[in-house]
Each structure stands twice: as structure tokens, then as C-alpha cells.
Amino acid sequence: MKALKLKRDDLYTYLESLKSYGELWGPVAKGEKYVYARLTNVRDVALGALRTIIPPKKFFVPPRFTMFRYTDDHYAESFDDVKPRVLFGLHPCDIHGLLILDELFLERFPDPYYKRRRDATAIVGLSCIPDDKCMARSTNTHAVEGGFDLAFNELGNNYLVWIGSSLGDDLVRLNLDLFSEDIEPEDLKTYLAWRRKRDSRYKLSFDLTGMPDIMELSWDSPMWNELAEKCLACGSCSMVCPTCNCYNVRDVSDLTLNSGVRERHWDSCMNKEYALVAGGHNFREARAERLKLWYTHKLKAFITEYGKPSCVGCGRCIDTCPVDINVAEVIRGLTGQKVTL
Amino acid sequence: MNNKPKVGFYSFSGCEGDLLTILHCEDELLDIFSAVDIRSFRMASSERHDDENLDIAFIEGSITTNKHVKKLKVIRERSKIVVALGTCACYGGPQSARLGYNDWEERFKKVYGSAKLTVAKPFESQPLDEFIKVDYRIPGCPIDKYQFFYALTRLAKGMPVELTKFPVCAECKWNENECLLLKGQLCLGPITAGGCNSRCPNHGLPCIGCWGPTDEANVASEINLLKEKDFSAEEIINKLRLFGGAGMVRRFGELLGIKPKEEKTLSKTQGVSKKKREKK
């Protein structure tokens, strides 16, 4: 990974240059929240945005999309919306979220819809200072060592720009004159001071060591029923989680009845029908069972299989759940800390 | 010969907004009329064949008089599949907002005085399934045309219909709306059936529950949450009942201050119509 420097004042000029690679997308304000949107005007970018309502997974597994169009004897896959894109402003937790999705969608059973979109997209990270809902330090996803093409890190009046891939190198060359290679001893000091500042801002801190054991021992905990009584089963937690990736598939016929589309849309294990199988049996009829599954997946099953939790500490569930059921509350409950529900 | 499914569209008490939604599909109307054989649709055509058997009957509106009941039962007898179209047919609609309070006669007198009724005997507005077996429900005020197309094409192919089961919140997240509940508004999104593409929150308006409750609605928690946000019990209950009708009263009556009522003679009616159908 090579590091370069870019003057803060040159950021917008460089963002403009990135457009020659493809569509430029980044966080913009929507009311009091943020969403990833097309940056037609680079000055619309919200550099202080911490978390968007929906994580960047929406670019690779859109909430709903057409997989293919079919007729009686033929089908054609649809990749109409796949085009070169630069996503700017992804924070480390969201990059870790994508790395988890990569393991699921690119490894054992590569998903062509995910892969085509992923391959067409350049990832440009941006450092951040956490707020009281961030817990990425606990999940060890507060910094990135990969998973990006470029990563911008605040450094006084400059950005430290890490090149993470050969595509990243190409992106720098879109406007090479803006970058400098003069890294000075002072820069290291500034960088370390910035790191200390970031780490000191985490209000939420959890020891997730041995979480699978704790989950296993909590299988019959009354906490699940208590949470289920409050849970609205609205599924919002799944929709906003960077690593939730379940989907449903359905065929939608045209009115002519001999053609149509197969579409995919996000689903959630919080939906009652999720575990309903042919014959009418439902493996997780009770809300408590579904809640337990959601958290077992994040804090136990994924750790057992991949060696890390599938929570990246982005704080979206904390920010979203109307009745305050979230990963922080559940960890508190499981580890015998005071629950503030 | 024409082997397309025979379909009828019928309307009882309501604004006919659901049938109007279908008629407003200018771009798709020809395809709809080609996909199925429409035998009755009074808003579309004066030609009606009300004596034939149907494959599918789409019925909108709620049931408010004894005459309705008679007509409704005849449609049920004639139809293999009955689809309740729109929230009035599914749950009774806004005219069923006071279902279960047993104050219908009082309200009637307030509006009509002691006028003598000769045409039909009216009663508290009820959804279709209070009187007949309903095979599918397509809620909405009005319905969403794409959900209707989806149901129509599935039924035309002889397949079962699976409509959206998750609440408005899911689509509201897909559309990346700011959560109106979190902003302190009285939003019924978490307990209301989705499929509307979160139309109201997309425009900054809280969900008023016009598609009726989801199967999994946690109404008790929603009420607690809204109370914490300083809405009065009356305000909350009125909002829940506005479109919730029988969908709210039957399942969550106690939460709304209504004593639980014994299940109506629904199964009986069902049994009768089934037997009669078999005879034929």
C-alpha cells in the first residue's frame, strides 16, 4: 500500500476527475440523515456523514432488481444497471461489511449479479471520527488494511491517500498532478495523533472474545422473550445492516401471461414467513426465536465459520430500531451488563 | 372457443376507488382484457352476465345491508375464487372504524333521525369474510395496481397468490426515508401490511395503516411506543381503527378497549356455501 498526499482544497477537483472512470456516488444529506446518492455536483458530498440510512450493500445487492426476463422458451439475464461506478466516502466499517458480503457472494457459490456489480465498482474509503453509536473498535472493523481501491485519511490540511489496488493506482493517475509523494516525519505524528483522537471517541466498548460461548449459554435466556415482546418485527434491522443479505425471489408475469421477469428483493429472518416451508411448518414461528436467530448469526454462527462476527459495529441498528433492540443492547444483556431498553 | 378464466368485478359499499384504479391502467387495459374474460365490470361496461359461473370474482367495498349479503352470497356461489379487493372488502374500511363499539343504531339516529327505511335493512359495515369465505385479500386504499396485476396473472395461471407479508417499514428502508416514528410522528408503518412501496412516508407523511395490519403486527408494542412519544390513548386508538376495521378489532380488540367477541358464524357460512357448490 502506497501512501500519497492530497491537499484538502483539491478534494473537489479530484472528485470531479473521478467521474471520468464512471458515475460518482457518495453520501449526501437527506433531512437529518444521509444516503448514498449520485454526485452530479461534487460539492453535494457530505464529508461529515457518519452513517447512511442504507449501507453500500445497496449497490451490489439492490433492494429489488430484475435477475432476468423470460418468455415461454427463453430467458435473458438483465445487467442493465451495471456500469462503471466510483463509490466515495465509505468508512472502514462499511468496507468491512463489503468484505463480509464478498465472502458470501464471491467465494463458494459466486453470485453473478453481485460479482458483475462489484467488478464494475471502485471503492474509495474515507476516515471518520465515531459518534456515540459507533462500536467498530469492539468489532475490530475501525480501520482497513484492504477492501478498497483508494482510502482517504484525514491528515491536518491534507488527506493521506492509501492506494489499495492497481485500480486505485489508475484512479490516482486520472489527475496525478494533485498528489504529492512527500511524506514527512511530521505527517506520521499528525496521523498518530488523529488515530488517538478517533480511538478516544468510542463511547461503546465491548469485549467480544468468546461470544459464541456466551450465545450458546444464553440459548434459554429469558431475555429473548423480553425483547420479543417489544420487537415490532418490522425487519428494519435487517434492511439497514451492512451484512444482512437474505433475499427472496419471485416471478412476476406480464399481463400477456407468456413472459415476465424473475426479481429478487431483500428479505429478513425477522419476517415470520422466512422460515415457513412447504407443508406449512415454520421453524421459527415465535418472534423470540427469530430475534435469537438474527443475533446468533451475527455473534455466534459467523464467528464460528469465519473467525469474526458479522457485526461491523456501524451502529445502524442502534440508530434505526424504533424500540431500541440492537446489537449493543443484546451484548449488554448477554454479558450481564445493565440493559437500557 | 375461449378458455380464458371468467372474471367478474363487483362493488359494495365504498368509493369504488379500487375498480377505478384498475380502469385507470390505460397502458395495461388491453392486456388485462386479453388475459381474462371479463364477464361483469359495471364501471367499464354495461354488458353484464350475472347468471354465469365465474373462475374469479374480485369484490370491493364493505357489506352494509341485508341486500348486500344476499348478493354477496350469490357471487360466492357462482365463483371458484373470491378475492377481496381493497381495504373495505378486506377489513371493512373507514366505515368500519367503530366496529365492536355496538353504537351503530345510536349513530344512525344521529344522522338520519327516525326516517323509515324501506329499500334495505342497513347495519354496521362489515368486511366480506363476515359473511362468506374469502380466498385472497388484496388490501389497499386504494389497491396498488402492480399488486393487482401480480394477483391477476397468478390466478389466471391457476397458481396461488403470495402477496407482500412484511410491513411498510421494509419498503420504507429500501426507499431510504428518514424514519418518521423516530422523528416523533404517529406512524403505523411497523404494523401495517407493505406492498404500497411506502407511498406516504416517501412524501414525508406517516403511515395511516390503510392496508390493514400485518399477520405479525405487534400492536401492543406499537401502542406503548406511541404513548412514550406522548400521543394520547384516544389518538392512537382512533388512528389504529381508521383503516384497521375488523382487522384490528378481531385480533387486537382488547388493546382497543373492546371486549373479545366469540368468532362469528364464519365457518358455518363457509360450510354451507361449500356444500352447495359441491351439489352443483
From TrEMBL, chain A:
Keywords: Iron, Iron-sulfur, Metal-binding. Residues 220-252, 300-333 form the 4Fe-4S ferredoxin-type domain. InterPro entries: 4Fe4S_Fe-S-bd (IPR017896), 4Fe4S_Fe_S_CS (IPR017900), Helical_ferredxn (IPR009051). It comes from the Bacteria. GO terms for molecular function: iron-sulfur cluster binding; metal ion binding. The keyword Magnesium does not apply. The keyword Metal-binding applies. PANTHER family: ANAEROBIC SULFITE REDUCTASE SUBUNIT A. This is Hydrogenase.
UniProtKB/TrEMBL annotation, chain B:
Residues 15-154 form the NADH:ubiquinone oxidoreductase-like 20kDa subunit domain. GO terms for molecular function: iron-sulfur cluster binding; oxidoreductase activity. InterPro entries: Hydrogenase_assoc-protein, NADH_UbQ_OxRdtase-like_20kDa, NiFe_Hase_small_N_sf. Pfam families: Oxidored_q6. The keyword Oxidoreductase applies. Transmembrane segments: none annotated. It comes from the Bacteria. Keywords: Oxidoreductase. PANTHER family: COENZYME F420-REDUCING HYDROGENASE, GAMMA SUBUNIT (PTHR42845), CYTOSOLIC NIFE-HYDROGENASE, DELTA SUBUNIT (PTHR42845:SF3). This is NADH:ubiquinone oxidoreductase-like 20kDa subunit domain-containing protein.
